[in-house]
Amino acid sequence: MTRPEKGVFEYRPTITNDDIDILNHVNNLVYLRWSQEAAIEHWNSVANEDIQKEIAWVIVRNEIDYLRPAFLDNKIIVYTWVGKSEDTRSIRYVQICNGETGKVFANVKTTWCLVDATTLRSRVIDNKVLEVLSRF
Predict the structure, then answer these.
(1) pTM for this one?
(2) Separation between Cα atoms, residue 97 and residue 105, nearest integer Å
(3) What is the chain written as a DSSP string?
C-alpha cells in the first residue's frame, strides 16, 4: 500500500499494557481500534459540528494485512486517507507504522457507509459530504 503525498492524516496512539496479548505483542483487535480512532479523529478535524450532528459513518467491512508484530515499547504512527467515495460508501486506507523505523505493522482498508445521524438509515454521499472529504 502506497501512501499518497497529500491528504494523509496522522494519529499517534500509545500502546498500553491492556493492548498486549498472550504472545507479548499488540493484539490484532487493537489495530482495528486504532484504525477506527484515526478515521474518527480525521473526520472530526475537518467536519464542522452541524455536519457531525446530521450524519455519521459506520463500518461495513474491514480488510487487514498484519505484516509484523508491534510491542509495548514501540512508538506508533497511524496514517489514514480517504479513497473512492460514491453512492453510500467511502473507502478509507490506514497504515500502522513504527514511528521510529517507519516499518509497516499493518495495512487496513475499511469500507464506511454514510448514515443519517437521526434515522441511522444509509444515505447517499452528496456534494456537501464530498466537499468535506475533499478537505482531506
Answers:
(1) 0.93
(2) 5
(3) -PPPSSS-EEE-----GGGB-TTSSB-HHHHHHHHHHHHHHHHHHHS-HHHHHHEEEEEEEEEEEE-S---TT--EEEEEEEEEEETTEEEEEEEEEETTT--EEEEEEEEEEEEETTT--B----HHHHHHHHT-
Contact 63, 109 (CB under 8 A): yes
Find, among 128, 69, 129, the residue nearest to 103 by Cα.
Answer: 69
85: cell is 467515495
Q: Which of 79, 61, 63 is nearest to 7 (CA)?
A: 79
CA 65 to centroid of chain Cα atoms: 14
pLDDT digit string, tens, across residues 7-27? 899 999 999 999 999 999 999
